[in-house]
Amino acid sequence: MTTTSKVHTPVSLYGFLTPKPGHADELRKLLMDLVEPSRGHEGSLQYHLHEQDDGRFFLYEVWRSQEDIDRHNATPLLRAFMDGLPEHVEGAPEAYSGVMRSPHPDTAG
Q1: What residues does the ABM domain cover (predicted)?
Q2: How far apart are CA 52 and CA 56, in angstroms?
């Protein structure tokens, strides 16, 4: 009997969000409300929120695969967050993604 296992290449997402004046507290709450549910989504390897000294928020996420990110992005929770985001941020989010080249212990195979 032959078994096949799918090899996943972790993908990281990271970026900054700058709150509009007077919106930092609300944006912080909205972002914090994403942390635990997102960590529970299939394929989430890391999900962290940081607050910079200059008031910007920095998100760092690592997902098992692009398919997991796509599923996460389609959840009602994230869709509602993204729909309301322009009300609270100045300009577009500064967002980046990339394939993780260093081994991640949760995907070693």
Answers
A1: 11-100
A2: 5
Residue with tokens 């993204």: 82
18 in Cβ contact with 41 (< 8 Å): no
In the numeric block, which tokens belong to residue 55? 């008031």
Q: Does domain 11-99 have CATH number 3.30.450.40?
A: no
Tens of pLDDT, residues 17-46: 999 999 999 999 999 999 999 999 999 999
Q: Name beta bridge partners: 48.
A: 60
Domain-by-domain residue ranges, the chain?
A: 11-99
The closest of 38, 50, 46, 39 to 79, measured between CA atoms, is 38
Q: Which residue has the tokens 């695969």?
A: 65
Residue 107 β-bridge partners: none
